[in-house]
Amino acid sequence: MQQVTTILQKDLTKCIKCGDELSDLNSTEVCYYCTNLMQLPKIFQNLTDSYGVKQSVIDNFNKSLFLTGGTGSGKTSYLVFMCKYRWRKKLLAKFINFPDWLNRAKININNLERSAVRLKEFPGLLGLDDIGAEKGSEFVIEKLYLIIDHRQSNGLQTVITSNFTLDELTKKTDPRITSRIKSMCIQMMFNGDKR
Ligand SMILES: Nc1ncnc2c1ncn2[C@@H]1O[C@H](COP(=O)(O)OP(=O)(O)O)[C@@H](O)[C@H]1O
Ligand SMILES: [Mg+2]
Ligand SMILES: [Zn+2]
Question: How close is the Cα of 9 to the center of ligand 3, in Å?
């Protein structure tokens, strides 16, 4: 009887998702890394690098970047690897699919205001995936400007991906946005289709 009880007891020192040792024993059953993975779209949660971008991700660990190139060229994956690298080190990173964020936030204008403030002030890496894909209403442009202007003027790390170049985005959005991106970010071109 004694033995059965022992076997049924859960191992509370290990993450229930990945089995890694938990460093914070008091509250959670899921480690910091696995908790953060859940904010990624499913297909990116378990993606491993098969195109050798890892070294570049490490080299750009602290940099603000603008990733541009065609659909399927690996921009979102690169941003995902940057976030994962930080989560592995127990550092802050947030992954936002920008069109999704707009759609969710649009349902409630107060939500959107609050969420925009949280994004612009987020102290870790803020990843804004796929900007320019949304319809560029004046309202959207204003929100994007507030976020990017604040992050640029406060030196907060920001990684942006877009299917458009900065010149194309200038036409679609506002030169105030793209000039901030230009001065804050290193631009990286992606090409080829990796799907
Ligand atoms: N470094 C990589 N390692 C492994 N797979 C990759 C990598 N880059 C891209 N891919 C694959 O290509 C697909 C498209 O890449 P994605 O990052 O979504 O492109 P984009 O954001 O530029 O449209 C991904 O779902 C993934 O399967
Ligand atoms: Mg993408
Ligand atoms: Zn885990």
Answer: 19
**pLDDT, greater one: 12 or 9:** 12
DSSP sequence for the chain? -HHHHHHHS--TTB-TTT-PBPS-TTT-SS-HHHHHHTTS-HHHHS---SSS-HHHHHHTTT--EEEEESTTSSHHHHHHHHHHHHHHTT--EEEEEHHHHHHHHHT-HHHHHHHHHHHHH-SSEEEEESTTSS---HHHHHHHHHHHHHHHHTT--EEEEESS-HHHHHHHS-HHHHHHHHHH-EEEEE-S---
In the chain the domains, ranked by start, together with CATH numbers, are 1-38 (no CATH), 41-190 (3.40.50.300)
Considering the entire predicted model, what is its pTM? 0.92
Ligand 1 atom index nearest CA of 79: 17
CB of 99 shorter than 6 A to ligand 1 = no
Q: Which ligand is nearest to the CA of 80?
A: 1
Predicted pLDDT at 107: 83
pLDDT digits (tens, 9 = 90+) for 40-88: 999 999 999 999 999 999 999 999 999 999 999 999 999 999 999 999 9
Q: Is 74 in the pocket of ligand 1 (CB under 6 A)?
A: yes
